[in-house]
Amino acid sequence: MQRIARFEKVSLPQFQSDFSDPRSDACAAYAAIVMPRRATRGSAGYDFFLPAPLTLAPGEGALVATGVRALIDPGWALVLAPRSGLGFKYRLQLDNTVGIVDSDYAFSDNEGHILARVFNDGRAGKTLSLPAGAAFMQGLLLPFGITEDDETMAVRNGGFGSTDASCADGSDDALRALPDAAQALFEGERHPLVNLSNAAALLYDGMRDVNWCGFYLMDGGELVLGPFCGKPACRRIALTRGVCGAAASQGRTLVVADVHAFPGHIACDAASRSELVVPLFHEGRVIGVLDVDSPRPARFGGLEQDALERVARALEDACDWTRAEYRLR
Ligand code: SME
Q: Per the domain annotation, does 16 fall within a domain?
């Protein structure tokens, strides 16, 4: 089972601004918030609990402020549905039939507060009456795919800007130009130390909201710190640890919207909130990773991934890896 999400309480001010039940006290409801959980080991759905009592006569609806936000890894979504028991007994419905919570919703201006509009659609005249703490809805964490030609670059406006502020000069074009700029910088130089150093400087200088950018290189079965820009960083990373270890051992790019939600993330700089790691290959084997950190949550999207993967490919081609002074494998 993959652990790809975390539930958190939203802030009290956020909860107060969304809590609309005149019969209950928002502070008491906030104190009563419980994180969603599965009832049994085999349950697929996370039960969501009411922070305040809910009474719905037939034909009546209400907006439930759950007090919960979901931090979800890219590639996954939280799908909300009524609890089957309440559906059977009262035809309790979600107004949007099923709710889809995207992974970037957590960084919206409302902290990604999960709100549920529920409706007693019962035909037998039964009033639904649930106490605070009762489970009323379930959420399933499901993976999703994208089409081969999908080039969606927009990110949800989470109050943290959007991908069009990717580059230091604020344009997507500048980001797209980075691989060519890197190629030009490597021209006529084959030494990995030189090209890795210049690549780190180029990206650090050229990308907005980046607090660390550099390389870890394979050495004796682990990753060792290579050229970088930013604060001093951890020297060695086992392949079983961190975003870097995961990207190197899986041989694929990892885009982490919230590093705190990534199991085993290594915090070299406490300011880092999101991270993108691209493996570098030589003769079919991973020789290291390019690691970029941002203090902004969900800073990196498809555009950044594409640009940095192109820089990685340019580096692989530009360098004579046998000239590295350390063992690369
Ligand atoms: N955060 C990385 C460790 C390297 S620092 O970000 C420079 C990780 O979890 O692998």
A: yes
- Kindly report the CATH number assigned to the domain that includes residue 127: 2.70.40.10
Pocket test for ligand 1, best of 215, 265, 268 (most atoms within 8 A of CB): 268
Which residues does ligand 1 sit against, CB inside 6 Å? Answer: 212, 233-234, 237, 242-245, 265-266, 268, 272, 275, 291, 293
Each residue of 106-160: pLDDT tens digit? 877 788 999 999 999 988 899 999 999 999 999 999 999 988 887 766 555 432 2
Number of domains the chain contains: 2
Q: Of 143, 178, 194, which residue constitutes the final position of a domain?
A: 143
CATH classification at residue 272: 3.30.450.40
For residue 154, being part of any structural domain is answered with no
Q: Distance between CA 67 and CA 65 in Å, rounded?
A: 6
Closest CA to 68 of 4, 6, 153: 6
* Structure tokens, 265: 């993330």
Paired residues of 228 in beta bridges:
214
8 Å CB contact between 48 and 66 = yes
- What lies within 8 Å, CB to CB, of 155 at 6+ separation is 104, 162, 163, 298, 301
Range of the domain at 213: 164-323
Model pLDDT for residues 247-268, shown as the tens digit of each residue: 999 999 999 999 998 988 999 8
